[in-house]
Amino acid sequence: MNITFSEGRVIANQHELVVRLDGQARATMQAMVDDITLMGRGANVITAMGSGVSWSVRLDSDAQLQAVSDAIGIAIQE
Fold first, then answer.
1. Under the phi-then-psi rule, with left for phi > 0, alpha for psi from -120 to 50, and beta for the rest, what region is 50?
2. What is the DSSP letter of 30?
3. Who contacts 38 (Cβ-Cβ below 8 Å, separation ≥6)?
4. In this structure, are residues 12 and 1 in contact, taking their beta carbons and an 8 Å threshold?
């Protein structure tokens, strides 16, 4: 699954999630699905914490967060 948002792209499958940010730095953040938390209620945030990983990114809409949830099989926390 590949979702484009205002700051870059989210590439996700049942095993891992990769966020590629646009701009000069072209940063890439990767995490295993077990380390991912999805926060809804308008926040639309993907958080990765565990195994030396700690980052978060805000998506543009609830629909984008729902698409990530569907792709990786993790429920959105309200």
1. left
2. E
3. 45, 46, 47, 65, 68, 69, 74, 75, 76, 77
4. yes
Element (H, E) at 34: none
pLDDT tens-digit readout, 27-50? 999 999 999 999 999 999 999 999
Beta bridge pairs of residue 45: 39, 58
Quote the pTM value. 0.91
Q: What count of Cα atoms within 13 Å lies in the side-chain half-sphere of residue 75?
A: 2
Mapped onto helix, strand or coil, the DSSP state of residue 33 is helix
**Across-strand partners of 32?**
16
Distance (Å, whole) CA 78 – CA 71: 18
